[in-house]
Write a structure and sequence with these properties.
Helices cover 50% and strands 13% of the residues. It contains ten helices and seven strands. The protein has helices spanning 13-31, 46-54, 58-74, 91-97, 105-115, 127-131, 134-140, 151-163, 172-187, 216-228, and strands spanning 5-9, 39-43, 79-82, 120-125, 145-147, 192-196, 213-215. The strands form two sheets. The protein has a four-stranded parallel β-sheet, with helices on both faces. It has a three-stranded parallel β-sheet with strand order 2-1-3, sandwiched between helices. Helix 1 (13-31) links the parallel strand 1 (5-9) and strand 2 (39-43). Helix 1 (13-31) packs across helix 10, helix 3 crosses helix 4 and helix 8 (151-163) runs antiparallel to helix 9.
Length: 232
């Protein structure tokens, strides 16, 4: 039997859907049949998780996600995923509050970067992912330097993420804005770009960018599938 996956989702719904689809589709691609792992999804109400970071109430975020994690555990999940980059700010608090493993997106992304032989990447995401140090610190522990955009570009990216992408609004003007920012990071020495918000691939992905990109949604979902299949 495969391990049962528990996904803390709704952060936002758009990216949660991509996790779900990736795990199922990749299993069929790899094995040619449909015995994929069972998945339990708890989709939170997103509004409070959009407000609490603005209020710096990471304690409430940790409490909320831990409560959801316990519910997934009680429902039979063998391990958990937090299906959002920014919410990994409270990863260790959630891990401490549940009795099953919580698979880190940050470690999975670092492993993907190292597999390409890179030591410097550009990082784009919410203003918290870019402005706080937790993401860069996690990559630094693996010997990876993460470059972030300047303050003006961070504000632009954050606005598009919350006002457009989290509502599945895709605008070509915004895509071009992101690509200009990515070009700046490349000019500063980035060898690849970490799409450090699970909604970003809805707007820009490898088809739009010449340098390698690291789709954190796909990387995390693939790591979850591999973990669920250990021993298969």
């Amino acid at each position: 039997m495969h391990k049962r996956i528990g996904i803390i989702g709704g952060l936002s719904p758009e990216s949660t859907v991509e996790y779900y689809k990736h795990i199922f589709r990749r299993y069929v691609e790899r094995f040619g049949e449909h015995s994929y792992p069972e998945i339990i999804i708890y989709s939170v109400s997103f509004q409070q998780y959009a407000v609490w970071p603005e209020q710096e109430r990471w304690d409430l975020i940790a409490e909320g996600l831990t409560d959801v994690g316990r519910k997934l555990e009680a429902a039979g999940a063998d391990f958990l995923l937090i299906a959002a980059n920014t919410m990994h700010m409270v990863l260790e608090q959630v891990r401490a509050g549940v009795g099953v493993p919580v698979l880190s997106m940050l470690d999975a992304v670092a492993e993907a970067i190292l597999a390409e032989g890179f030591s410097t990447v550009g990082l784009i995401g919410t203003r918290f992912t870019m402005g706080k140090t937790f993401y860069r610190d996690a990559l630094s522990e693996h010997g990876i330097d993460a470059l972030v955009p300047d303050q003006e570009d961070q504000r632009y990216i954050n606005k598009v993420l919350y006002e457009e992408l989290s509502n599945n609004v895709i605008r070509e003007e915004s895509r071009q804005g992101f690509l200009k920012i990515i070009d700046k990071l490349a000019g500063r020495g980035a060898e690849g770009i970490v799409l450090g918000c699970t909604e970003i691939p809805l707007l820009v992905n490898q088809a739009h960018i010449e340098m390698p990109v690291f789709d954190t949604t796909a990387i995390h979902a693939e790591a979850a599938l591999n973990y669920a299949l250990e021993g298969k």
